[in-house]
Known about the structure:
Elements: H1 2-12, H2 19-35, E1 69-72, E2 77-84, E3 86-87, E4 90-91, E5 98-101, E6 111-116, E7 135-139, E8 144-155, E9 169-177, E10 183-191
Parallel strand pairs: 2-5, 6-9
Antiparallel strand pairs: 1-2, 1-7, 3-4, 5-6, 7-8, 8-10, 9-10
Amino acid sequence: MVLLSSLKKFFLQKRFKADIPVGITLLVFxxxxxxxxxxxxxILSTSFKDEPVRVEGFVSEEEGELPNRILxxxxxxxxxxxxxxxxxxxxxxxxxxAAWGEGSGLPGKPGNQVIFAHARYGLFLPLKSVKVGMKxxxxxxxxxxxxxxxxxKQVYPKELEVIAATTDETLTLYTCSGFNxxxxxxxxxxxx
Length: 192
């Protein structure tokens, strides 16, 4: 009883009267976050895990050696690269390695060679610090190719023109970025 009386006096004091409506509003908002049923397709559905790289029109016609390692010494990236098959219109994404998108360009040949990985420690997370002019090395079984970063940009997952075929030899690195992985970090490099 004494506690209720003390609380009543506390909240009825003139200096706290303005805080009561604010407190009630925050309380109602907090409860609504748990009660309201948000649509299934919310901002989280655009993560790399739920929406890997969508591809259209890629066909593996070119013959040559596949990339099997990517090195960016300035960022301490040194990863194996595995071929990612197209499954139901999407390239596979591996949890522990970088991937080369099947049907994209090959090292040493004209075309857009697309290599991607999760933005995690031990994978492509260091790409967030990439700078124009940095060197990227792609290794195959028998050769090594060096590229120079020419362009860095962020796009939304549906902006697929960044992985479209090119007439010159291009290397495109692709990973997640932005709040809650809602964007993609694209690094475009040309062979030197």
